[in-house]
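Hi support team,

I've been running sequence recovery on a batch of backbones for a student project. Most finish fine, but this one hangs at about 90% for roughly twenty minutes before it completes. I'm not sure whether the input is malformed or the queue is just slow. I've pasted the structure tokens below so you can try to reproduce it. Let me know if you need the job ID as well.

Thanks,
M.K.
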């Protein structure tokens, strides 16, 4: 890299010193005062009433990927961007998207039952029952016509199949029925297929989001007996986006895989159903009584099966190429036009999508309106601001992934940050992402007032953490924290390609926790549901607009970009501690279990919910050598500390710091691995990735962690070397930044 100029570093020193004096990270005292004034002007432009009107308008009709409604919503967003003063355009991609043409589920024995597979409209919900709503289905299921015995597999996770094995139950050649929850839905058929199942049914048990949780819709917010969660089952942990164009943008003439060769399309038929349709299927099961923690809230005894229950599942799909409409709006920077502060939220939905995604999209549009009003006063950002409304997120992060793959080199050169949101509701502030931005987003959030409590959103979140802390020690740790921690990012929204494929610093920001319900991906995710149960008055839409709007404004106008890699160093050190504790725990539990087995002292009970077959002894857990990783972390800590100390002790001389800024926002790319993760090279970030068997859920230091969890000890040692090299790369890079 080009050697960085000392003068830029000198200015950074003073900026961080001012930050310690309760100023704003990245701003001098004088520029901070002006910045706060700009943010106040921005806030005055925001309107809860307008957010509600936008939400009602955009959710008035179904607008799934490939539908006329999706194009209409994109055109409305484009028109708004342009009216606010953005240089806006539509960017389109040609992508594969399956929709159902045949859906049949019937129990053929011991009794007959044909599933309804339909959500009825309700008089209390104005948009339920509209024409052109996608029926209940799982996108990226295989076509199939299968008949087999039925087996209940709890949530369909790998450990559930281990429990079944101890009961002597094999799902090979059978159809499984699994509950929604505990993992991303696509993991359930994936694991079922790995165990030999020929089909998969997924239902929402009322214990999770139905009448057990609260009154059902329309009386209350929770799932009624007919509600069904649509959703993608694409194997996104291999790669997201269009299945036919991995690693390249799905432009008109892009080279495409044959559909049969696309690894992210499932091999067995999969169908979601309501708990009304699930009840007769589950009631027909025999075999062992399900373990206590498997049992739901339906009024019956839960059995595992198989017994005489036989089901016939027939699915066929239209495998069409459709157009994805991404809407891109830009405000050109006055000083650094080639440094981009990016902000995004998707606009497509499974049906009307008032909560998911339009609650976040409506807030984004009000932010854009606020920025447009600032433009009218003569303000112009120093850096270019890019606002994005993505299409095709629901089927597999398609619009954002195709954009990122299509513009990969440019984004790695120019993108300072990507800030994402999705659905929001009333409740608590939450943030996840790049830990080099942890201090920054904590300071931003501390300046936002929660409308329900009139304290800062960080204080309210801290109060929740204190109430939830299990021990006095945990409470003390929370009270002692100077900076609220942010979470690590897995998958499930449009940040994935930016962070995990390109190494662009990323934040995912939202509010929620008090708007729970059962409308997710159903026809009841409507404006009527949202205004009653999610965010009455749309006040948290305004809070989201303020939070992200302030973050965008500060990153766009900062004299020096507010990265602090000491937070990243501390966080990764914590992840390594978790891994060492994991291996120690596995070693001890394996030794104890093997001792019991070898002593023939593994107790078997007559209770059918207990183990029927003793487990087999497992190989002992070897000693894992983490020394290369701890040495790399020592180097990272030293380089991050050195950079911070130098910043705090060098006086300002002049303001030439462009090279330093660019080096700061491109530092995240040093944590990418050229070869990517084992068996899924699209994911290149060595610190954050979705779990191979969790989907949305994050795995930190994923190459190492998953190798340990799968007891692949040679691979664990090899991935330690890979991650140590990436961390060393970052340490050396930061050393050069501080020269």
């Amino acid at each position: 890299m080009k050697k960085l100029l000392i003068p830029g570093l000198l200015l950074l020193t003073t900026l961080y010193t001012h930050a310690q004096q309760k100023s704003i990270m990245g701003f001098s005292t004088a520029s901070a005062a002006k910045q706060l004034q700009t943010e106040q002007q921005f806030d005055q432009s925001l309107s809860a009433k307008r957010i509600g009107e936008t939400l009602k308008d955009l959710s008035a009709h179904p607008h799934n990927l490939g539908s006329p409604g999706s194009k209409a919503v994109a055109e409305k967003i484009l028109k708004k961007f342009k009216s606010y003063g953005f240089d806006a355009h539509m960017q389109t991609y040609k992508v594969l998207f399956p929709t159902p043409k045949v859906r049949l589920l019937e129990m053929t024995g011991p009794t007959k039952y044909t599933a309804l597979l339909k959500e009825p409209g309700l008089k209390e919900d104005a948009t339920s029952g509209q024409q052109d709503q996608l029926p209940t289905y799982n996108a990226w299921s295989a076509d199939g016509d299968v008949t087999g015995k039925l087996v209940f597999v709890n949530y369909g996770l790998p450990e559930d199949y281990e429990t079944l094995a101890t009961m002597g139950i094999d799902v090979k050649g059978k159809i499984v029925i699994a509950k929604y929850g505990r993992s991303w839905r696509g993991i359930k058929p994936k694991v079922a297929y790995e165990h030999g199942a020929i089909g998969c049914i997924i239902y929402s048990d009322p214990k999770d989001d139905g009448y057990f949780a609260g009154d059902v819709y329309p009386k209350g917010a929770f799932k009624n007996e007919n509600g069904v969660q649509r959703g993608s089952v694409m194997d996104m942990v291999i790669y997201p986006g269009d299945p036919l164009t991995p690693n390249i943008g799905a432009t008109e003439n892009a080279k495409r895989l044959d559909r049969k060769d696309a690894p992210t399309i499932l091999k067995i038929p999969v169908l979601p159903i309501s708990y009304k349709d699930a009840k007769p299927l589950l009631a027909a099961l025999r075999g062992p009584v399900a373990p206590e923690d498997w049992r739901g809230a339906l009024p019956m005894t839960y059995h595992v099966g198989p017994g005489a229950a036989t089901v016939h599942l027939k699915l066929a799909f239209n495998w069409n190429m459709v157009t994805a409409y991404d809407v891109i709006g830009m405000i050109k920077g006055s000083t650094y036009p080639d440094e981009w502060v990016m902000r995004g939220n998707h606009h497509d939905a499974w049906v009307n999508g008032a909560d998911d995604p339009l609650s976040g999209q409506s807030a984004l549009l009000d932010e854009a309106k606020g920025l447009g009003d600032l433009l009218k006063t003569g303000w112009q950002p120093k850096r270019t601001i890019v606002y994005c409304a993505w299409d095709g997120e629901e089927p597999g992060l398609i619009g954002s992934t195709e954009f990122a793959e299509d513009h990969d080199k440019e984004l790695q050169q120019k993108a300072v940050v990507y800030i994402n949101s999705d659905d929001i509701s009333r409740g608590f502030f939450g943030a996840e992402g790049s830990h080099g931005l942890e201090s920054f987003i904590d300071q931003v959030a501390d300046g936002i007032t929660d409308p329900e409590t009139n304290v800062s959103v960080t204080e309210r979140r801290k109060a929740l953490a204190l109430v939830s802390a299990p021990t006095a020690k945990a409470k003390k740790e929370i009270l002692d924290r100077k900076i609220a921690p942010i979470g690590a990012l897995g998958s499930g929204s449009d940040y994935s390609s930016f962070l995990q494929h390109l190494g662009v610093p990323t934040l995912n920001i939202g509010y929620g926790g008090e708007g729970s319900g059962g409308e997710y991906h159903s026809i009841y995710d409507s404006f009527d549901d949202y205004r009653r149960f999610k965010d009455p008055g749309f006040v948290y839409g305004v809070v989201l607009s303020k939070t992200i709007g302030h973050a965008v404004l500060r990153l766009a106008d900062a004299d020096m970009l507010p990265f602090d890699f000491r937070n990243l160093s501390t966080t990764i050190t914590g992840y390594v501690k978790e891994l060492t504790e994991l291996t120690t725990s596995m070693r001890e539990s394996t030794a104890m279990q093997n001792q019991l087995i070898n002593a023939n002292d593994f107790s078997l009970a007559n209770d059918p919910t207990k183990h029927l077959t003793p487990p087999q002894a497992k190989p002992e857990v070897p000693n894992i050598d983490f020394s290369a990783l701890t040495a790399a972390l020592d180097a990272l800590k030293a380089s991050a500390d050195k950079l911070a100390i130098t910043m705090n002790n060098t006086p300002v001389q002049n303001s030439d710091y462009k090279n330093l800024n660019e080096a700061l926002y491109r530092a995240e790319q040093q944590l990418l691995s050229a070869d990517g993760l084992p068996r899924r090279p699209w994911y290149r970030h060595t610190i954050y990735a979705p779990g191979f068997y969790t989907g949305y859920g994050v795995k930190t230091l994923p190459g190492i962690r998953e190798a340990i969890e799968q007891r692949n000890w040679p691979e664990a040692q090899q991935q330690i070397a890979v991650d140590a090299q990436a961390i060393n790369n970052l340490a050396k890079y930061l050393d050069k930044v501080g020269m």
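--
Follow-up from support: It reproduced on our side and the slowdown came from queue contention, not your input. Confidence is low (pLDDT under 50) at residues 1-21, 604-609, 650-654. No action needed from you.
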